[in-house]
Amino acid sequence: MSVETVEVTKALKQPHGRSRVIAGIIVGLGLFVALVFGLGSSGRAKSQFTFSPVNLSSNAPWHLGALTVNTRGWNVVLGVLIIALGTEVWVRRPRAPMLRFGLSSIIFLFALLFWACRTPGPSQIPFVNLTATLAGSVGIAMVLMYGSLSGVLCERAGVVNIAIEGQFLGGAFFGSMVVSVTNSFLYAALAGALFGALLGWLLAFLAIRYMSDQVIVGVVIVTMMASLSSYLNLQVLTPYPNFNLGNTASTTGIPLLDKIPVLGPVLFNETWFFYLAVALVALVSFGLFKTRWGLRVRAVGEHPKAAESVGINVARTRYRNVIMGGAVAGLGGVAFMATQGQFQPGYTSGLGYVALAALIFGRWKPSGAVVASILFGLSAFLANGLQSYSVPVSSEIIGMFPYIITIAVVAGLIGRVRPPAADGVPFKRS
Amino acid sequence: MKKTRVLVTRVFFVTTITGMRVELRGVTKRFGSFTANNQISLTVEPGQIHCLLGENGAGKSTLMNILFGMLHAEEGEIVIDGQAVRFADSGEAVRRGIGMVHQHFMLVPVFTVAENVVLGFEPTKSLGRVNHRAANDMIHELSSRFGLDVDPDALVENLSVGLQQRVEILKALSHDAELLILDEPTAVLTPQEIESLMAIMRSLASAGKSILFITHKLKEVQAVGDVITVIRHGEVVGSVPATTSEADLATLMVGRDVSFSVTKEVVEAGPAVLSLRDVVIRDDRGISVVNGVSLDVNGGQIMAIAGVQGNGQTELVEAIAGLRHVESGTITLGGRDITNKTPRQILDAGLGHVPEDRQRDGLVLSMSIEDNLVLNTAHFRPFAKGWSRNLPAVSSNAADLVERFDVRTTSITADVGSLSGGNQQKVIVARELSRPLTCFMAAQPTRGLDVGSIEYVHRQIVEQRNQGLGVLIVSSELDEVLSLGDRVAVMFSGQVVGVVDPQVGRETIGLMMAGAKPE
Predict the structure, then answer these.
(1) Would B120 be classed as within a structural domain?
(2) Are B79 and B113 in a shared domain?
(3) Is residue A422 part of a domain?
(4) Calculated CA dihedral for residues A93, A97, A103, A109, nearest 10 degrees
(5) Is there a contact between A137 and A68 (Cβ–Cβ < 8 Å)?
(6) CB-CB: which of B110, B128, B516 is closest to A291?
(7) Chain B window 186-225: which residues touch A at a Cβ cutoff of 8 Å?
C-alpha cells in the first residue's frame, strides 16, 4: 500500500439545495416571460427589431431591414428558452449557474423590451434597435472593465479596493477639466490616471503602513471623492462652464472589421479608450499568469508570509499594484466621461461597485471580468433603455434592475468562488 | 543491515562533499523581562543530524528564528565555517546556505509544486515569462539526486501534508541550503510518513547536508539523531548522544521524572450515549468531507478518533456540537435527536465540548476568567435571575472551579487571554465539566500543552470516563490516542476506516491512518 497516493474528494457538482433555488428562480423568470410578456400580449401584436443605428445608417455599407415578429409567439419562445436554462441548472447542476441566471436576466429584459414596443401598444417607440442597444452596452461594459481590472490588480496582491467608485469620480472630474482646457483626451487620460493613482497610493498607504481596515478606508475615499467632486463642481465647473464643455471622444473605426453588420459598429468602431481597455485586459492577463511579476503578485495575495520568506518585498508589491489599480480606475473614469459628456455630481452612479461585483463574478481573473462586465453592461443599458418606452412600471423601479441583478448574481456566488487567500488581510512582518 | 548501508554511503560522501559547520555561541534573546534564550551554544557539524529537544515554550523556535535571521539576538553570535555572521533578514540566511522548513508550511496552496519551489528565484525567458520547463528540469534533477519524488505540476493544495513537506525541503535545497532547519516536522505526519521523512533526513546527511531537527518527541530523536541538545526554560541543559534512554531524555527535558502511561481501571462500558448514523458533512467550499460516518460512544468508555489532520475530524466535531450543518444522517445524544439543532440546544442536552482551537472557539480572550467559566450557563439559574446577571454567583462559581481545576492565576477577574495555554485549556475543561453531562467531547485536548498540563488533562478525561460518562477524543497525536482510548476509530478521507482496540498497535493504526482497511 502506498502512502503517497492522495485521495482528494472534490465536488464536481454544486450542492443540490442551492442549485435548486437558483433553478427555481430562473424557471420563475421564464414562466413570467412566457405568461405575461408572451401570452399576456394580444395575438395580433407585432414587435420590430431594427439593426441600423441612426447615426451610422448614412455611411454604413450594409443595410439590414427591420425584422417584424409576432410578440406573443416570440416572447413565448424566449420564456421557454429561459425555462430550458433553469431546467439545465436543476438537472445538470453546472459549475457556473449564476452565468445562466445572468443570461436569463438579459433575455428577460429583452422580452420586456419587445413587449413594451409592441404595436398596437402604448409605446411611442415601436421598435428595438439591436445594434444601438449592444453598442450602448459595450460603452458601459468598457467602464466596468476598467473598474474590475483595477480590482484584479489590487486584490490579486491582497488589498481590497472598494474605492473604485471614488477613483472613477476623481478621474472623470479631472479628465473633464483637462479635456475642456486642452481639447486632448490623451492629456485627460493622463490626468485621470495620475489622480486615480494618487487615490490608490492613499489607500495603499493607509492599508499597508497603518494596517487600517481596507473596506473602511475604501468607503471613506469614495465618500470623500463624492463630496469633493460635488463641491468643486459647484465652485468651479458651474461658474466657469468652459472647464466642463462635455467633449466626447470620437470613434476610430478599424478598417474592414467595422464594416461587419451589427458587430462592426458595436465592437470595431469605438473610441480608443475601448481598444485600450481590451489591450489592458490582455496585458494584465498575460502579466498575472505568465510572468515572474504575476507569480510574485499572486503569491503576495495568497500567502504573503511565504512570499516574504523567499525575499519578495510584500509591502512594495502591494503599493505598486494598488497604485497601478488606482491609475486604471482613474482611466476608467475618463473613459466614462469621454462617452457620457459633461461632468455632473454623482456622475458614475455606483458603477464602481458594479465593477466590484463583476470582479467577483469573474473570479478575480481579467478574462472573467470581461464576461461579467458585458453581462452587467447589458443589464444596465437595457434597464436604462426601458425608461424611454412607456412601460407601466415607474422608471425609478426600472433603474434598480441592474443592481438587483448584480446583487442576486453575487449573492448566488457567496461561498462558491474563492478570493485570493490574503485578500483584505493586512500583512504584519514577524 | 539497512543502517550499515547508510553509514557506508555517508563516509563516501563526506570525503567528496564539503558541508558547512554552523556554531551558535552564547545566544541570548529577551522579550521584555522574559528571557527566551539564555547563553545558548551549540555546534552542528557537516553531515550531522543535530536534534534540538525541548518542551513547548522551551525556546526552540525562538532560537531557530534567530539562526534564520527572523529575530535578532541581544547577545552571542552565529559562526559559519569559522566566520561570524549577522543576518538582517531571512533572505540573507538563505543566501548563506541556511534553509528552514517551517512548522506552518510557507507554500502557496493554489500554486503548483514547481511555482512554489522557484518563487522568488524564477528562471525566465523573454518578456519576463516564467520558464516552467527549466523549473521542472531543476526539480527533477533535485528529486533524483536526493530521492525526493514529487510531481512538479501538481497543485500543492492537492498534496498530502507529507508531500507538501517534501516540497518545502526541495525549496530549501533549490536555494543551495547546506544546513536545513526542520521545525517540528513530524507533528502533522502519519507514522509511515515520519519513517519516510527520516529516510530523507538520513540521505541528506549522507550527502553532506547538516540538519537541525527540532522536536519534543523522544522516539524520533533516538531514531534519527547523531547528537541531541536538550533545552529547558531557554537554557541548554545537556548535550547527549542519541543512545541516551528515553527516560533520561524525558527527565532532562522536563526537569523531573515523568510517567508516560495513563493508568486506567477497567470500567464496564454502558449503553451508547452518542450515536452517529451515516453522517455526511460538507466543508466551507461545499466539498463533502465526512462521507457517511457511523459511530457509537458508550458510557464509561473513551472513544478516540485517530487520523491525520484534514480527514474530516474537525468538521465531524463541529457538526456534533451544532456548529456545522449535517447534510444527511442523524446524531443522537442520550437518545435524543440532536441533528442540526442549535449549539445551545445541544449543549443543554448534555454535551461537553472542548474545541480544537481553544483561543478562537473555546474562549473569549478579552473577557475575564469568571465570565469565561459561565459562557454557556450564564443564561441559567443561579447565574441569571430573569434578565439580570447574578454576579456574586458567577464569582463564587469561578473561585470554586479555579481551586478545583488548579487554574494558575492571580485573579479570577483577569483576562483569560493573559493565562498560559495550559491554564486556558483548564478553564475550558472546568467550564464543561461543571455542568451535568451525558457525553464529553474534546478535540486535540492537549495540543500545545506542556507535559505537566497534559498529565492533568488526561487524568480529568479518564476520571470522567470512570464516572460513567461517554468520552469522545479527537487527536492527531497517536501516542495520546493509544494511551487514552478504550476503542480507537481511525478516520481517513471522511470515513471511519475501522474501530479497533488500541492493543492492535501503532503499525496497524498507522496503516489505517493512510487508508488501509484493518484485517
Answers:
(1) yes
(2) no
(3) no
(4) 100
(5) no
(6) B128
(7) 190, 192-193, 196
Domain for residue A388, yes or no?
no
Contact flag A15-B149 (C-beta cutoff 8 Å): no
Task: Give the CA distances from residue B423 to residues A47, B402, B455, in Å, rounded to whole numbers and listed in that order.
Answer: 77, 10, 13
pLDDT tens track, chain A, 430 positions: 333 333 333 444 556 677 888 888 899 999 999 988 888 888 888 888 888 765 554 456 666 777 888 888 889 999 999 999 999 988 888 877 888 888 888 888 888 888 888 877 777 777 888 888 888 889 999 999 999 999 999 999 999 999 999 999 999 999 999 999 998 999 999 999 999 999 999 999 999 999 989 999 999 999 999 999 999 999 988 888 888 888 888 888 888 887 777 778 888 888 899 999 999 999 999 999 999 999 999 999 999 999 988 888 999 999 999 999 999 999 999 999 998 888 888 888 889 999 998 998 888 999 989 988 988 888 888 887 777 777 777 777 877 877 888 888 887 776 677 889 889 888 887 6
Cell of A282: 490582455
Domain count, chain B: 3
A236 within a domain of the structure (yes/no): yes
Task: Please give the C-alpha separations between residue B70 and each of A293, A337, B1, B65, B86, in angstroms, as whole numbers.
Answer: 25, 50, 41, 5, 11
CA distance B369 to B352: 18
- Number of domains making up chain A: 2
Q: Smallest CA–CA separation between B479 and chain A, in Å?
A: 20
Distance (Å) from the C-alpha of residue A232 to the closest C-alpha of chain B? 43
Q: Is the ipTM of this complex over 0.90?
A: no
Tell me which H or E stretch contains B154: none
Supply the range of the domain harboring residue B148: 106-175
Q: A390 in a domain, yes or no?
A: no
CATH number, residue A318: 1.10.3470.10
Distance from CA of B290 to the nearest CA of A (A): 10
**pTM value?**
0.78
Q: Is residue B262 part of a domain?
A: no
Q: Residues with Cβ < 8 Å from A381, sequence gap 6 or more?
A: A133, A136, A137, A139, A140
Instruction: Select the residue from A310, A312, A430 to test the B interface by mutation, using most B Cβ atoms within 10 A.
Output: A310
Considering the domain architecture, whether residues A65 and A175 belong to the same structural domain is answered as no
Nearest to B110 by CA among A298, A206, A371, A313: A298
Identify whether B408 is part of a domain: yes
Residue of B nearest to A283 (CA): B127
Host domain of residue A268: 136-374
Same domain, A178 and A116: no
